[in-house]
Amino acid sequence: MAEKSRSELDRRDPIRVLLVEDVDFEAELTCHHLRKHGIAHLVQRVETDAAMRAALREFKPTIILSDFSLPTFDGLRALDIARECAPEVPFLFVSGTIGEERAIEALRRGAVDYVLKSNLTRLGSAVLRALQDAEARTVRRRQEQQINRLTGVLRMLSGINGAVVRIRDRTELLLEACRLGVTVGGYPTALVALRQPKAQRLEPVAHQGADPLLAHTLCELLEGRMAQDRHSRDKPRDPAAPFICQDAGATHAAVIGLPLIVDKTVVGVLGVCPRDHSAIAEEELVMLREVAANLSFALQYLRQDSKVRLLSYFDVLTGLAKRSLFCERLGRRFRESTGGLGSSHAIAVLDIQNLSAVNDAFGRHSGDQLLQLLADRLKRRFTDTELLAHFAGGTFALVQPVERSAAAALDALNRHVDQLFAEPFSLQGKDVPVAARSGIAFYPEDGNDPETLVNRAEASLRSTKESGQRRGHYSAEQHAEALARVALERKLRVALERQQFELYYQPKMSVKTRRIEGAEALIRWNDPDSGLVSPARFLPILEETGLIVDVGEWVIERAALECRQWQRQGLPPLRIAVNIAPLQLRQPDFVGRFLKHVHPWATANCGLDAEITEGALVDDSSAVINKLKMLRAAGVNIAIDDFGTGYSSLSRLAHLPIDTLKIDRSFISEMSADARSKRLVSIIVSIARAFDLVVVAEGVESQEQLDTLWQLGCDQSQGYLHSKPVPAQQFATLLRASPGYNSQAGDSADHAAAD
Q1: Is the dihedral angle over the CA atoms 410, 412, 413, 419 positive or is it negative?
Q2: CA 335, CA 333: separation in Å to the nearest integer?
Q3: How far apart are CA 7 and CA 3, in angstroms?
């Protein structure tokens, strides 16, 4: 990477280096190492506040290199000025006096790196890396601007998709598409021209933002360009590829042409005139191509509407039977087979893996093309198409007679599926490898009627997805487990309706004072049939089914209610942490729903806090970060739970809106026997200190662990050494027994609450 960057720099103008340095020799040494690394540069040296501000305005540096200590100036002050006046310019410390603590502070305040003067050999690579990062940030800003510009096109695509679904008249549909192109897509002019069978030329059939004369002018321009491409001796172009015609009349600089294709034949073109043809991005053309593909599909559908109604049992895209017809044929095949009920058949249901990824990468029209190509391969491999079906999406089905043993038939079917996907599929001129999972059921061993057999083959397919395998065979045991899982999901829905959940509380103790400073609310399920159920058994089901959103809100509401009751009873104020699942956090109205339960009674010392896992931040979603910032601004503390078990970089940690790190119990339990675990805990505590965060140790079960945490400077501990999780009433007893509780104040508060 460094070699590539050096060669790129050699081809560019010299970089402009603003050097904050008061010693001539040190400045020359810095420049020497830049030249030694092959970095061409211009340098301006400053030593004062005013000189630096002037250089930022007039010299416009590419990068800033600063000493940490100067006689009349300070490196951190220089950093603050740089962040104020030129925040996009990377800032590196080149110093011999900076220590670890000051280095961490400098990085926290915006410096990108630091290089010791005793080790200037890494200066060149550090500068190159900083410049690369700065350039990447610039690219991201441009991408954000481009995304804003593409929003209108995306809304246009969405509107046309809706029109395709609801409008059955061709002219009305095309007029609506043109209207959406202008009013939603932001194009000044949009038109659709179709090739007339007799004249064999394009004629405008719908337009918006253009009079008839301009529409015909644009149509002739598009026709000429398409004819030129047809007769070109160059490499044939993709007939569906968008093209741009310049000089589109007096009112428009260009027009984008998007061919409309039905049955592999260009039948027309969708034309849109951009406001600024120089800003047309590839992403815009890709989205417009998808618009044209959807209109093409609609034209094909409307052309064959009467045929489709007659063939309602067939999938229009692939020409294969739908589920109902497949089951009907399957039943007939069983009845007509020579051996009667004694004849065995294998029913396989296969599903394309990551079809959504193909749709995202190439567009939905390419996903549809993939389904058609797979259907073609199935028809070539299994000549009797009555044995084939396309259910929905990427799911297909087939049936084969079992000529020998079930094991041999299973192997044969698996080989067939492997061979179907052995070669990549050609999409938009690219070879795309595709894989599939399959599930198989046997007649009559796994069922006697077609619907049951198909359901069980699908159940086997679902099991392969859950286990990560590619091939599966129906198992009664797996089916029983699936039924039990469905039953558990149903019981959980009932539990939510009938308030069978309870909250237990585990105190968080100050390591120094050994007083209760907070608590974590932990959910329990009091099942009427089996008693208390372990969260490990039902929480995964809640998250998979989405029930965690409703149950999570109940937890917030219940914790707020009980915390407020303790407040009214005069118990010591404390903050209760509730666990927030990633799915909850992604809900658009999460912040409002959380805050409505704590306002206006919460105070700085009494209220609810939110605990999230590191996994909730892996995608670094700006929406999630903004929600956490809103909660924090409202007085809600944010904690990262099980810290150390996921992925958190220090650079990201410095910008996350969090207040607390909770060390995972696995590190605490191994501290006594494993020096590495102890060092890791010490490092986490130091990191928390550097970022001014509270650190909580989970799973503390021995006095030795607590003493070690005290030595390391940990703030709070939580675990069975202090108390196991207890019901609300028992936790209130713990609070009353805590030092500083005023029983008379508590009694007065009880009477006030009763009144």
Answers
A1: positive
A2: 5
A3: 6
pLDDT tens profile 67-100: 888 888 888 899 999 999 999 999 999 887 777 7
CA distance 539 to 184: 43
Distance CA 739, CA 755 (A): 28
Q: And the tokens for 162?
A: 């809706």
Q: Token pair for residue 341?
A: 């009920």
* pLDDT at position 248: 62
One-letter amino acid at 595 equals L
Q: Where do the DSSP E strands lie in 47-188?
A: 63-66, 91-95, 113-116
Say how far apart CA 528 and CA 525 lie, in whole Å. Answer: 9
Q: How many CB atoms lie within 10 A of CB 546?
A: 11
One-character DSSP codes across 439-471: EEEEETTT-SSHHHHHHHHHHHHHHHHHHT-SE
Burial 232-270 (b: 16+ CB within 10 A, else e): eeeeeeeebebbebeebeeebebbbbbbbbbeeebbbbb
H/E stretch holding 395 reads strand 395-401
Residue pair 665/698 in contact (Cβ under 8 Å)? The answer is yes
Give ∠ CA 600-601-605 in degrees, rounded to 5: 120
Sequential DSSP letters for 202-251: EEEEEEESS-HHHHHHHHHHHHHHHHHHHT--SSPPPTT--EEEE--SSS
Q: Contact at 8 Å (CB) between 499 and 464? A: no
What is the pLDDT, as a whole number, of residue 672? 81
Query: Which of 108-122, 307-321, 689-703 reaches the highest mean pLDDT?
Result: 689-703
Q: Which of 153, 150, 148 is nearest to 181 (CA)?
A: 153
Domains in the chain and their CATH numbers? Answer: 2-139 (3.40.50.2300), 167-305 (3.30.450.40), 312-474 (3.30.70.270), 489-739 (3.20.20.450)
Give the number of other Cβ atoms within 10 Å of residue 555's Cβ: 22
The pLDDT mean for the chain works out to 84
Q: Which residues contact 324 (CB under 8 A, 6 or more apart)?
A: 313
Contact 47, 21 (CB under 8 A): yes
pLDDT in tens, 137-150: 877 876 775 775 67
Alpha-carbon span 491 to 488, nearest angstrom:
5
Helix (H) or strand (E) holding 390: strand 388-392
Tokens 């644009």: give the residue. 218
Tell me how long the chain is. 755
CA-to-CA separations, 180 to 162, 175, 293, 561, in angstroms, rounded: 11, 9, 16, 50
Contact 230, 222 (CB under 8 A): no
- 728 SS3 class: helix
With CA atoms as reference, report the closest residue to 579 among 545, 615, 544.
615
Torsion of CA 472, 477, 479, 480, to 10 degrees: -160
Please name the amino acid found at residue 747: D
> Helices 535-545 and 548-568, interaxial angle, to 10°?
120
Cross-sheet strand order for the sheet of 436-443? 388-392, 395-401, 345-352, 436-443, 471-473
How do beta strands 471-473 and 516-527 pair? unpaired
Mean pLDDT over residues 92-113, rounded?
84
Cis omega (within 30 of 0) for bond into 600: yes
Centroid of chain to Cα 525: 31
Task: Identify whether the C-beta of residue 389 lies closer than 8 Å to the C-beta of residue 396.
Answer: yes
What pTM, to 2 d.p., does this model score?
Answer: 0.47
Q: Rounded to the nearest 10 degrees, how much is the dihedral formed by the CA atoms of 601, 606, 607, 611?
A: 170
DSSP characters over 690-718? HTT-EEEEE---SHHHHHHHHHHT--EEE
Count other C-beta atoms under 10 Å from residue 513's C-beta. Answer: 10
Band (pLDDT 50/70/90 cuts) for residue 265 is confident
pLDDT, tens digit, for every residue of 269-303?
A: 999 988 776 667 788 888 899 899 999 988 888 77
Beta bridge partners of 94: 115
**Which residues pair with residue 431 across a beta bridge?**
426
For 480, the 3-state DSSP assignment is helix
